[in-house]
Design a protein that fits this description.
Layout lengths: L2 H6 L12 E7 L11 E6 L5 E4 L4 H6 L13 H13 L1 H13 L5 E5 L5 H8 L4 E5 L2 H11 L3 E3 L12 E7 L8 H11 E12 L4 H6 L13 E2 L2 H10 L2 E7 L6 H9 L5 H6 L6 H27 L5 E8 L2
Parallel strand pairs: 4-5, 4-7, 5-6, 7-8
Antiparallel strand pairs: 1-2, 2-3, 3-9, 8-11, 10-11
Helix pairs in contact: 10-12
């Protein structure tokens, strides 16, 4: 482990400042193989929050997000099939956002933070919702404009690109677990939201059955890109500390829960992992692997529905508003 990594690692729990912890296990970048380094997963002895150790330095962190991390469909059958699948499984997110937008009064922007290639923004706009995205990666923002033809601002929410109280809904799907200090983004979201606006957040759920069964092989840990691994209770406490009250909870996502289990069991089949690793595959072999992965996702559906019904799903999605 490098000295730069050690310097970036928090000595105290980022939630409660407790110094004591226990080591759950060690893990590496099992999914994308961007580094051969090993990292520890620490659980705070006081509040139970799970965090990565050591935290990568900013320069190291950028290496863990290669350019192929964002999906750009090519003009071939396999990519068109993958794009169709991505649109299909966004149904949960689409309806979750639309319901929150209607509850907010339906006036103002829907801002998707960390929008990647902008597919959700595109689908929302196709359904009449005035959406735009914010994305840190210049490559992903350019992809959103070029491929999905949607407005995306290349910026950090630390320096909000919009006026205060200009947003009806702000969504952060799989964003907070990547941040060293999630409160910075949540404070910005608080200022950007209208008085009756809605904040939507989603993260992997570290209290899920999959983590208990699979340990360091659970894809939701996504070492070393996820710095903090939230349980639902951790996430709700964080939102309350930042001035929000939780209105709605969802423990299942068709886009994330079954594919997450499939990827945990067979990371070598995951289409995104294969693309990021730059594997050279003949079209027939690629299609065969994609179909095998789809079969594994379908097989994972009953288990992931059951764990979600027991409020132990592998993701947690929350809708919140400003406290009165």
């Amino acid at each position: 482990m490098s000295n730069a990594n050690q310097a970036a690692s928090p000595r105290l729990c980022p939630a409660c400042d407790a110094p004591d912890y226990r080591v759950l296990f060690e893990a590496g970048d099992r999914l994308y193989n961007t580094t051969q380094e090993r990292f520890r997963l620490l659980e705070c002895s006081r509040c139970g929050l799970i965090r990565l150790d050591p935290w990568p330095s900013p320069n190291e962190f950028r290496r863990y997000y290669p350019s192929a991390y964002w999906f750009a469909p090519a003009d071939n059958f396999a990519d068109r099939l993958e794009q169709a699948w991505r649109r299909l499984v966004l149904c949960d997110h689409l309806e979750f956002v639309r319901r929150a937008w209607r509850a907010s009064g339906g006036q103002g922007w829907v801002l998707d933070v960390g929008c990647g290639g902008g597919l959700l923004v595109r689908v929302l706009r196709e359904h009449g919702v005035p959406a735009l995205g914010v994305e840190l990666s210049p490559q992903a923002a350019a992809l959103a404009w070029r491929v999905n033809h949607v407005p995306v601002i290349c910026a950090s929410l630390q320096a909000p690109p919009l006026l205060p109280q200009s947003c009806a809904v702000i969504s952060m799907f799989h964003v907070l677990e990547h941040l060293p200090d999630p409160t910075v983004y949540l404070d910005s979201a608080y200022r950007l939201l209208k008085p009756d606006g809605r904040l939507l957040v989603q993260t992997p759920n570290a209290a899920c059955w999959q983590l208990l069964l699979l340990g360091e092989h659970w894809s939701g840990l996504d070492v070393p890109r996820h710095l903090i691994n939230f349980r639902a209770s951790d996430l709700e406490y964080l939102l309350e500390c930042c001035g929000f009250e939780v209105l709605r909870r969802k423990h299942f996502s068709l886009r994330d829960n079954p594919p997450g289990l499939a990827t945990s069991l067979a990371p070598w089949l995951d289409p995104m992992a294969r693309r990021v690793r730059g594997l050279k595959e003949k079209p027939v072999l690629r299609l065969l692997k994609d179909l095998l992965y789809l079969g594994l996702v379908i097989a994972a559906l009953p288990f992931t529905l059951l764990e979600a019904a027991c409020r132990s799903g592998s993701t947690i999605m929350l809708e919140a508003r400003k406290k009165p």
